[in-house]
Amino acid sequence: MKIFLDTANIEDIKKANSWGIIDGVTTNPSLIAKEGKDFKEVVEEICSIVDGPISAEVISEDAEGMIKEARELVKIHKNIVIKIPMTSEGIKAVKTLTAEDIKTNVTLIFSANQALLAAKAGASYVSPFVGRLDDQGEDGMQLIEEIMQIFSMYDVATEVIVASIRSPLHAKLSAMLGADISTIPMSVLQKMFNHTQTDLGIKKFLADWEKVPKK
Ligand code: E4P
Predict the structure, then answer these.
(1) How many domains does the chain have?
(2) For 137, left (φ over 0), alpha (ψ -120 to 50), or beta?
């Protein structure tokens, strides 16, 4: 499973990228707003750090506006993927952008039917939001299972990005379901490294090492 970092924070992106396990980055308007910097500048900087797909979201609500924004955003870098909300206008824009070889990531997916429609329009990626479904008492991972089943039956080329990840368990279950990508916030990624037995094990090895006679 590929791992994308779900943030627009440059320091976090640099840090996670230095670990050598980051395949791409996803942003959204909320994540960009948190950084308090110019959108284009942030996206440019992310592209200069991570060599992989970088999702940048449009804010227009009509297809024409989305297409116009997308054509400008792809000029920033060859790795830009245009994030488009799951609406009928969004799907219309995806169809046009796909014909222009512009990569798209259809976001705010909350049902298997939405994922199916996005795939039919030629989306490069779909982003089902598991955490937000869990938040309202539904089972986010069940949605991933459904989408993976449908996409594998019909040999769909669209890749599934599990989004709105809240815990290491979400990441593990995504991998177990064969999701193509998980986009993970820095706080969750850091937790994925940890196990109390690893910490205890290192402590014990180092303590025992002190007992080794040194010449
Ligand atoms: C990424 O593509 C999504 O925008 C992001 O994962 C949403 O996460 P949230 O539900 O924690 O805001």
Answers:
(1) 1
(2) left
